[in-house]
Design a protein that fits this description.
Layout (H helix, E strand, L loop, with lengths): L2 H13 L2 H8 L3 H15 L4 E4 L2 E4 L1 H25 L6 E8 H18 L3 E8 L1 H10 L4 E5 L7 E10 L1 E5 L10 E3 H6 L1 E4 L7 H10 L6 E4 L3 H9 L5 E3 L5 H5 L3 E7 L4 E9 L6 H19 L6 E3 L1
Parallel strand pairs: 3-4, 3-5, 8-12, 9-10
Antiparallel strand pairs: 1-2, 5-13, 6-13, 6-14, 7-11, 7-12
Length: 308
C-alpha cells in the first residue's frame, strides 16, 4: 500500500468519478484504475461500486476512506512540522460541538486571521461523540469537548465552566412567570435532548443520578437546528447553555430559566491527542483558543460561562 494510492482513492470518492479524479490528479484514467485495483487486491476487499452514474463507496470503502483521510492528514502535518519556520503556518482543523460554536467559532476565526495570517484554520461542527473519535484518529488536530471523566486519551486544557438552563418557548406552558426552577421540576417536563452519548446529555444524566432523579419524558434530537425548531413548535423544553439559543432569547422567542437544587453546569475543555504530536500551527491555535475563551468570559460575551 502506497500513499499515492490513498490519495487516489480519496480523490475518487470526493469527486464521485474516476474520470474527474484523474483530471484533478493529472493522472491517466487507466493508471488510476490500475492503482485502485492494486489497492483493493492488497486489502482483499472491494472499495467502490462502479456504475454509469459514477462510483460509490462500499461499506468497506466507507471505513477505509475515514482511515485514509486521517493518514493523509497526519502526513501533511508531519511535513508542515518539519518545514515550518518560527512563524507558524499550515492548516489546523479544530472540531467544535454544535452547542459551543455559537459562542466560540466566530471570535476564534477572527483572532486567528488577525494573529496568524499564515495559518488556515478549518472549523468543523460535529456531535461530541463523533469529535472524540475524529481526534483519536487524527482527522482533527484539536477539539473542544466536555469533561465527563472520559478524556484520559487526550491532553486537556480547561476553557470555561458553562451553566445549563431550562429553555422553552416564551409562551410555553412550562413555569410561566418564573425566573428559575429546581432540577426536579426541569426533569419532570418533556425534554428535547441529544442522545445519551452526545453533548449535554451525559452531564444532565450524571447530575440527575447524583440527586436521585431522572428525566421523565425525553425526545432525542442530535441537531441544534432541529432541536430549536422543536422548541418553537412547543413539543417540549430543553436543558442547554444559553449561547446556542441566545438570538432567540434576545428576540423574545425563547426564555431561559436558571436551574437550582442542584445547579447544573459543564466543564468545557480543549483537547489534543496524547499520541499524535501537534504542529507549531496547532500549538499556536491551542494557545489562542484559551486566550479567546478567557476574553469572552471576562467580557460577558459568552453567556453563562465563567473562566477556569
Amino acid at each position: 500500500m502506497e500513499l499515492r494510492q490513498l490519495r487516489y482513492f480519496v480523490a475518487i470518492v470526493d469527486h464521485g468519478s474516476l474520470s474527474r479524479a484523474a483530471g484533478v490528479l493529472h493522472v491517466a484514467q487507466p493508471a488510476l484504475t490500475q492503482q485502485l485495483r492494486q489497492l483493493e487486491a492488497d486489502l482483499g476487499a472491494q472499495l467502490l461500486h462502479r456504475s454509469a452514474q459514477g462510483v460509490h463507496s462500499t461499506d468497506a470503502g466507507k471505513v477505509f476512506y475515514e482511515h485514509a483521510q486521517a493518514i493523509l492528514k497526519q502526513v501533511a502535518d508531519a511535513r508542515s512540522a518539519v518545514t515550518q519556520s518560527a512563524r507558524p503556518s499550515g492548516t489546523v482543523t479544530l472540531g467544535l460541538p454544535h452547542s459551543i460554536s455559537a459562542a466560540l467559532a466566530l471570535p476564534l476565526l477572527e483572532a486567528a486571521r488577525a494573529h496568524y495570517p499564515d495559518i488556515t484554520l478549518q472549523l468543523t461542527e460535529e456531535l461530541t461523540g463523533n469529535l472524540a473519535e475524529q481526534l483519536k484518529s487524527g482527522r482533527v488536530n484539536l477539539a473542544v469537548l466536555f469533561d465527563d471523566g472520559q478524556l484520559t486519551p487526550f491532553v486537556t486544557t480547561p476553557l470555561a465552566e458553562e451553566s445549563l438552563c431550562f429553555i422553552c418557548r416564551t409562551d410555553a406552558r412550562w413555569f410561566p412567570q418564573r425566573a428559575e426552577v429546581t432540577l426536579q421540576e426541569a426533569l419532570a417536563a418533556t425534554l428535547i435532548l441529544p442522545g445519551l452519548q452526545h453533548g449535554v446529555r451525559p452531564r444532565i444524566e450524571a447530575v440527575a443520578h447524583g440527586a436521585g432523579l431522572a428525566p421523565q419524558d425525553v425526545i432525542e434530537i442530535n441537531s441544534i437546528a432541529i432541536l430549536k425548531s422543536a422548541l418553537m413548535a412547543d413539543m417540549g423544553a430543553t436543558i442547554l447553555p444559553v449561547a446556542p439559543v441566545l438570538p432567540e432569547v434576545q428576540r423574545g422567542l425563547m426564555r431561559a430559566l436558571a436551574i437550582h437544587s442542584p445547579a447544573i453546569s459543564r466543564t468545557v475543555v480543549l483537547c489534543a491527542s496524547r499520541t499524535l504530536p501537534l504542529t507549531n500551527a496547532a500549538t499556536a491555535i491551542s494557545r489562542l483558543a484559551a486566550e479567546v475563551a478567557g476574553q469572552l468570559c471576562a467580557g460577558d460575551a459568552w453567556p453563562g460561562a465563567t473562566l477556569l
